[in-house]
Design a protein that fits this description.
mainly alpha, Helix Hairpins, 6 helices, 0% strand, membrane, CPA3_antiporter_subunitC, transmembrane helix, NUOK/Mnh_C1-like
């Protein structure tokens, strides 16, 4: 049992870091109402995914995938460049997404005066209720102003006993 803790656990240190960062990021998104803190939590979670992919793509004793001449190049172990390329692309996308998220948070603050999720939702529900009441009032006013057709009059619908057929 001690061999497990002395050999395996330190060898999996990167994965323990990934798990810790994922849980910290997830907790931050779930527990906080502040939109900026939620965005930071998403970034921490995203960073844990980056570390996970880099850790899986690591080969001990590998060199950069640059071909070398001579006897050293014949038996060299090369690291696969695809995980690093994918993570570089993901980092660029992550930075862009973060910038967009921050711009949306600024716009939400301008519109609602707060970046707390509860305040924004309360203001949004109040706006929806006011718009619904206004729409109901317009509907009632339109029905009251609408002239009623006399009974037995032509309502514009076609009937089966139409003699013109």
């Amino acid at each position: 049992m001690t061999a497990f803790f002395t050999e395996t656990v330190p060898g999996l240190f990167n994965y323990w870091v990934v798990i810790a960062l994922m849980m910290i990021g997830f907790y931050t998104v779930i527990a906080h109402d502040n939109l900026v803190k939620k965005l930071i939590g998403l970034n921490v979670f995203q960073t844990s995914v980056f570390i996970l992919y880099i850790s899986m793509g690591t080969i001990r004793g590998a060199t950069a995938p640059i071909l070398m001449d001579g006897p050293a190049g014949d038996h060299a172990v090369y690291a696969h460049p695809l995980p690093q390329v994918l993570i570089l692309t993901a980092i660029v996308v992550g930075v862009s997404t973060t910038a967009l998220g921050l711009a949306l948070i600024v716009r939400i603050h301008e519109a609602y005066g707060s970046i707390e999720e509860d305040d924004v939702l309360a203001a949004d529900f109040a706006t929806q209720d006011a718009e619904q009441a206004e729409e109901d009032e317009r509907s009632r006013a339109a029905k009251a102003a609408e002239p009623h057709a006399p009974s037995g009059g032509d309502d514009g619908a076609e009937h089966e006993d139409d003699p013109r057929r």
